[in-house]
Every structure is written in structure tokens, then in C-alpha cells.
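Summary for the lay section of the report: proteins are chains of building blocks that fold into shapes. Here we show the chain for 5'-deoxynucleotidase and then a coded description of the shape we predicted for it.
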Amino acid sequence: MSEADKIVEFVYEVGQLKRLPRAGWLFAGVQNPESVAAHSFRVGVLAYAIAVQEGANPDRAATLGLFHDVPEARIGDIPYVGKLYLDVKMPPEEVARDQVKNLPAPLAAHIEALVAEHESAKGDDHTPEARCSRDADKLELLLQAREYQAAGVTKMERFIQTMQGSVVTDTGKALMDSALRIVPSEWWEAFGRR
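The coded shape description reads as follows.
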């Protein structure tokens, strides 16, 4: 099997994230929740913006955000309530290592490092970019909850409240405050006021 074949197989696997719904939203009554891939895209954009404002490397932060949920192509999106009952034997870093073991070595090393660096933000030994990416992950959930709330889904307050204490960067906190104040439709309603 050629290197190109191995990369294409990996990209097909990552494509599963386009069809994998974010499971936590199902508990809240969202009929057709966003996919993990849609979530990861906006995490990457947010991580980039946060990193620019924080003086971190925006390209690295965005890449961390883009790749952070790649292991979910294999293990699924386990909602918080499910994590209380599951003994997940393999952390995301190890899942990623297994996912990329057939890729060309330099590419595999890069992807493994991205997932591990994002996960490092859960502890004390993390890079500024990991902190930006982790904040982006939490902010994206808050933004999505606000969007579902605006669309009439009523059980969003818990999601919004739990994310508020998770954001650590100054920029992330400022974005969170704005997200709580600005209605999701403001960006397009402004066109009507021109």
C-alpha cells in the first residue's frame, strides 16, 4: 500500500466525523445536532482568534482545534453523562497514535503531537496554544448552546453555565461575555439596519 493510499484511508476515517452527531445535544432534545466535524471547524477558527489576541501562535492553535476530536472517529462522542459510567481504557492521545500508525512517520508524529498537545491543556503542563485551543473548544459549545437556545431548544442553560467556569484566557473570557450578551442572529440582522 502506498503512502498516498494510507493517507486517503485516514482521511476517509476522519470523514466519519462529518456524520457523527455531538451526543450531548441529543440529551437536551436537539433533533439534528451539529456533527463533530462542524464543531471542530469552529473550534479551529476560535482558537486562531484567541491565539492572535493572546500573543500565541494562531496557526498552531487553530490546527490543535481542528484535530482535537479526531480520536472520536473511533470512540464516538461520549457525552458527559456517559463518561461517568465508562472506564475508557485508552486516552485520546493513544487512540490518535493507533489511528495514525500506518501513516508516513512524519505525518503520524505531527497528528499524535497535535492531539497530545490539546489534551495537555487539561493539566498544568501545557502550551499557550493548547490553552487557546481548549478555551475555543469550551466557547464553541457555549456558542452552539446559545444558537440552539435562540432556535427554541429550552434545555440549554446548563450547557451555558458549565462552560462559563471552563474558560481561562483573558480573550476567552471576553469572548464568552460577548457571546452571552449578543444574540446569535445579530451578525445578519445588522444587514437590515444598514
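Put simply, here is one thing we learned. The two ends are 57 Å apart (CA to CA).
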